[in-house]
């Protein structure tokens, strides 16, 4: 690593922090979506659309179409209303001929840029930021919209678009709920969510998400074929889609990390059905793309990941905590036992003693994949690591620490979820994990470096961004990203929230 990696940076001055905080507070308003913003929310640059088409807005079969139309008519002009079309979702996804926004009854915040819809795991970090900025009702509404998704669309969705109905995102629901509850102390609200919370939990712990050979869970999207948004919006200057670039990679390079014949037919130069299952599942993980599960994360369907199972451990513990708050300690014991069982399985399959890291487990080959990735800090964040395991992970901090904070992985691959890039959510999780085990100076150092970088780039660009190059300390990343989309989106919801939380943790606000 670079010699200056471990040199502490001078923390930004209070006036510089104040300017960035003012921007964040104003930005919640631009990222805010209500019924009055439905036309803006319905527009989606990731999917093809012609000017003479209305923007479709889909409602579940449980909704009253007349009531929803009346809601929109009450806040939209006649001209605006004529640009949208309310449709009931068909019973089968393949009956959707034109993709559109999925209706949500309340207000929410979107990430920003090309991501003009409500996202699953982004929402956790957004909620943290809203709470830090005193936007308690909006934070509560963000959670309520996720609960609505579970009740009306089957689970928390990747985002509320019809082409994302077949996949979820990492389960951060219960930490969100408890963060809001800490501010409101509303037990009636907490009690009202419990059924949906349990439903979302079971989404992750039964097949196809359950791997029965390990007892751990995996990412496994339910849809088939190419992801529609990739075909339209993830093209390069030559007009090649992400999938075209992958086929070219398979033609040119030998893949050692997995059996490429599962995913690519060399004779016909085509990607297989299983490839698209892996591709969609990679998107369900939120890490799209990386080489963590082999090139482009396509082999993810054969792995029990550290991040998902740590989050499910947290969810089991959180449900136990909620039940205790609601006066049901006996039922809480069941959830504590589930968490303890998962803890044992994580130690058995995901802890790697030789490397001192938590690693993803390939249940097809029955081995852990040695790929140094920042999700190794998740077990510290949720508190399942032993003191010795935490110490071993911290001893490996040099693999990830960079001048601008925390590298996503120790590998440069041309993917945005690898080196040299760093992301606010992973930084926050790592820093809070370090704090939890008493590594205050290490957490302060990592968090301080990232705050410095974000502040520096805010002063250059006037915005907070989706991701950063933490090696060169820059937000100019497009030329380094070969696969997936290479833009750096502005806004940006989870960066805003994570920065506010990092500042609070560092006792700077």
Automatic annotation (TrEMBL):
MF term (GO), any: alpha,alpha-trehalase activity
Tagged with keyword Glycosyltransferase: no
Domain of life: Bacteria
Pfam families: Trehalase
Keywords, in A-Z order: Glycosidase, Hydrolase
PANTHER family attached to this UniProt entry: CYTOSOLIC NEUTRAL TREHALASE-RELATED, TREHALASE
Protein name: Neutral trehalase
Originating species: Oscillatoria acuminata PCC 6304
């Amino acid at each position: 690593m670079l010699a200056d990696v471990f040199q502490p940076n001078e923390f930004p001055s209070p006036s510089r922090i104040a300017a960035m905080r003012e921007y964040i507070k104003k930005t919640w308003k631009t990222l805010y979506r209500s019924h009055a913003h439905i036309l803006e929310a319905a527009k989606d640059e990731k999917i093809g659309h012609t000017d003479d088409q209305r923007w479709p807005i889909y409602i579940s079969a449980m909704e009253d179409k007349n009531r929803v139309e009346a809601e929109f008519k009450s806040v939209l002009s006649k001209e605006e209303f004529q640009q949208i079309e309310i449709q009931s979702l068909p019973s089968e996804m393949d009956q959707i001929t034109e993709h559109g926004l999925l209706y949500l009854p309340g207000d929410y915040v979107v990430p920003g840029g090309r991501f003009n819809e409500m996202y699953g795991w982004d929402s956790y970090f957004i909620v943290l930021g809203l709470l830090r900025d005193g936007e308690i009702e909006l934070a509560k509404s963000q959670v309520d919209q996720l609960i609505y998704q579970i009740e009306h669309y089957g689970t928390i969705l990747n985002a509320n678009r019809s082409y994302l109905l077949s996949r979820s995102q990492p389960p951060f629901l219960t930490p969100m709920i408890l963060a809001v509850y800490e501010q409101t102390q509303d037990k009636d609200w907490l009690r009202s969510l419990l059924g949906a919370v349990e439903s979302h939990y079971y989404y992750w712990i039964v097949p196809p998400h359950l791997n029965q050979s390990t007892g751990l869970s995996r990412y496994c999207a339910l849809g088939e074929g190419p992801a529609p948004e990739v075909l339209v919006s993830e093209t390069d200057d030559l007009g090649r889609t992400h999938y075209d670039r992958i086929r070219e990679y398979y033609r040119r390079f030998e893949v050692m990390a997995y059996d490429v014949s599962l995913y690519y037919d060399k004779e016909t130069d085509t990607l297989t059905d299983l490839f698209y299952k892996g591709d969609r599942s990679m998107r369900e993980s939120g890490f799209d793309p990386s080489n963590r599960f082999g090139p482009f994360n396509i082999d993810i369907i054969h792995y029990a990941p550290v991040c998902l199972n740590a989050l499910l451990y947290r969810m089991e513990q959180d449900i136990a905590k909620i039940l205790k708050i609601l006066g049901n300690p006996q039922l809480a014991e069941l959830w504590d036992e589930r968490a303890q069982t998962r803890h044992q399985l994580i130690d058995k399959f995901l802890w790697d003693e030789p490397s001192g890291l938590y690693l993803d487990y390939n249940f097809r080959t029955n081995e852990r994949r040695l790929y140094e990735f920042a999700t190794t800090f998740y077990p510290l964040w949720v508190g399942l690591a032993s003191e010795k395991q935490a110490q071993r992970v911290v001893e490996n901090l040099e693999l990830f620490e960079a001048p601008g904070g925390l590298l996503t992985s120790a590998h440069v691959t041309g993917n945005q979820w690898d080196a040299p890039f760093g992301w606010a959510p992973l930084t926050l999780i790592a820093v809070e994990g370090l704090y939890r085990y008493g590594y205050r100076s290490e957490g302060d150092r990592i968090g301080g470096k990232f705050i410095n970088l974000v502040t520096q780039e805010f002063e250059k660009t006037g915005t907070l961004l989706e991701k950063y190059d933490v090696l060169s300390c820059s937000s100019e990343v497009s030329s380094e990203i070969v696969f997936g989309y290479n833009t750096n989106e502005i806004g940006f919801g989870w960066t805003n929230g994570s920065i506010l939380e990092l500042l609070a943790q560092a006792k700077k606000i």
